Amino acid sequence: MKIEHAALYVRDLEGAKRFFETYFEAKSNQLYHNKKQVFSLTSSALTKGRDWKS
């Protein structure tokens, strides 16, 4: 199995971003904040993919 995309809802967006950058060598985009919808988001790309074999 190969995971291509995943989405997470978290309370601490900056903390989650740092976690993935630290432990998975993720490269993150700049934080986006939508004031009308009251949400923030960022996307991160993992530099090293992982194939999950069952």
From TrEMBL:
This is Conserved domain protein. It comes from Streptococcus constellatus subsp. pharyngis SK1060 = CCUG 46377. InterPro entries: Glyas_Bleomycin-R_OHBP_Dase. It comes from the Bacteria.
